[in-house]
Amino acid sequence: MNEGKLSDIYSNVLLDLKKVNGVRMIALAGRDGYLFDENLNEGLETMTLMSSAMLRAAETVTNRLERVNPNHVIVDYDGGKMITVSAGSKALISVIATNDAHLDPIIEELERTAGKIREIL
Length: 121
Prior knowledge:
Layout lengths: L5 H8 L1 H4 L4 E8 L11 H25 L6 E5 L2 E7 L4 E8 L4 H18 L1
Antiparallel strand pairs: 1-4, 2-3, 3-4
C-alpha cells in the first residue's frame, strides 16, 4: 500500500479552503496549538497557539453560560480577520482572511474542511 505522509494528507484536505477568495493563510494544529505541518513557520505556530487559547476560552464561557460549544471564534483586526474552528477533540483550523473578505463563504468551507479533518482523526 502506498501511503503518503500525514502532512500531505492534511494539505490535500485543505486545498478547497485555500481556493476561497480572501483566504491568505491557513494552519492546522492540535488542540494544544502546535502545528501538524512538518514545515514549521514561527508566524503560523504563534497564530495557532493563540487560536488554541482563544478557542478554549470561548468553549469555557459558552459551556458555562449556554451549555454549548462555539461554532467559531473570529478576531477582527486592522488589516484582516482570523477565524478559528474546532476540528474535533484533537485539532483546530485557523484562517487569516483579508480585511475585505466575505466571511460567509470562508466559514462555510472552513466548517466543511473541519468535518473532513474530524473524519480523518
